[in-house]
Amino acid sequence: xxxxxxxxxxxxxxxxxxPRALAEFYRRLLAWDLVTDEPxxxxxxxxxxxxxxxxxxxxxxxxxxxxxxxxxxxxMMIHLDIRVDDLEAAGAHAVxxxxxxxxxxxxxxxxxxxxxxxxxxxxxx
Length: 125
Description:
The protein has helices spanning 19-30, 87-97, and strands at 11-16, 33-38, 41-45, 53-58, 80-83, 100-101, 110-114, 120-124. It is α/β, with parallel strands linked by helices. InterPro entries: Glyas_Bleomycin-R_OHBP_Dase, Glyoxalase_6, VOC_core.
């Protein structure tokens, strides 16, 4: 029997028409450090260097997902869950950073926001 190789999640990548602009939004939101800034590719990491990192890849044909998606709508492929200690204060911070509060809110203890490229993300206690 062969041993399973060690696998480590190193990062999450979001596609966007302007990866630098989306990275700047998440840098403001999370207070993470810019670690890579190349044409078409930007990466952020927590100040302590922990992983996974959050990267942004240029997708010229990016279509904003619809939240919540209906039949035939562009669906989200991934979303980020971000734990917070104060939902209202974190929500205000997210809006100040450039997020939009989603119209549809499925739970009382979670707030769904849309980043500038339309990717949903959740703030929760």
